[in-house]
Amino acid sequence: MNLTNKVVWITGASSGIGEAIATQLAKEGCKLILSARRTNELERVKNNLMAKDVFILPIDLEQHQEAEEWTKKALTAFGKIDILINNGGISQKSFALSTNTATEQKIMNINYFGNVALSKAVLPVMQQQQSGKIVVITSILGKFGLPELTTYAASKHALYGFYESLRLEHVKDNIQILLVAPGFINTNAAINAVKGDGSLVNENSDAQRNGMQPSVFAKKLVKAIQSNKKHIYIGSKELLSVPFKTLFPNIFYSIMLKMSAKKK
Fold first, then answer.
1. What percent of the chain has pLDDT over 90?
2. Is residue 250 situated within a structural domain?
C-alpha cells in the first residue's frame, strides 16, 4: 500500500507509540488527524512533525458515546478517512480483588468500548469509500493473563474477539483490519497505569524501561500496514511467551507465577 496522501487518524497520539507512529507516517507523506485528551501535547507533536497536513482533534475515549461527533469533526479536516489507528489506551497495576468496579469500568471504557465505538463510527465512512483500514493496537496480554493486569488483559482479549469477527463482516466492503500486539515498548504506559482505586501508579517497570524504542516499533508497524498483514507481533524476546504458553501451558504459568512472586 502506498501511503502518500493517505488520511490517517491516530488515537493516543500525544506521546509514546502514538507520537512515534505519527512521526513515521509524516515521513511517508500522510495527512494526519491526531487525537488524545491533552491538546497541548497534541500541539507539541504537531509542531515537531515534518508535515503540513496535520489536524488536531482532542478526544477522551472514556466518553465513547461521542464517537460519531468526533468522526464528523475528523471528516472536516480532509474529507475522508483512509486509515484509523486505534492506539489510545490505559494500563493497570492492581489485583482483581483490590480493583473497584469504577476502575474496571474506566479501563474497559477506554481500551474496549472507546476503541470499538470509534471504529463503528468510522466504518460507514469507509463503506461509502469502499476502502479503508482499521489498525488496532492490542497487546501480547491479549493472548494470556498476568497478575495485577486482570482487567487490562480482559480488555485486550476482548479486542481480539471483536475485530477478528469484524474483519470477516467487512471483507465485501474492501475494509481491512490489522491487529497489532506489542510486547514491551519503552513508553510511559506503566507510569500512567491505574491502581485499583483509580489513582496513577507513577512508577515505571523494568520491562517497560528496557523495552523496544517507540521509533523502532513505528517503523515495523508502518511496514505491516504497507504489506497488508492481518496480524503482527512487535517486540523482542518477550514475544516467545505466546507460542511457549500455547505449547507448554503448565510450565508457562508456573514460570509466570514465580516471576510475579519475585517482584513483590
1. 92
2. no
Set of cell numbers at residue 241: 511467551
The answer to whether residue 163 is catalytic is: no
Given 112, 152, 163, 233, the catalytic residue: 152
Q: 3-state DSSP call for residue 49?
A: coil
Residues ≥6 apart with Cβ < 8 Å to 251 = 244
51-101: pLDDT as tens digits: 889 999 999 999 999 999 999 999 999 999 999 999 999 999 999 999 999
Handedness of CA 202, 110, 153, 170 (dihedral sign): negative
Q: Tell me, what CATH number does 105's domain have?
A: 3.40.50.720
Would residue 1 count as lying in a domain?
A: no
Q: H or E element: which one contains 152?
A: helix 150-169
Alpha carbons 181 and 139: distance in angstroms, whole number: 4
CA 96-207-86 angle, 5° bins: 70
Count structural domains, the chain: 1
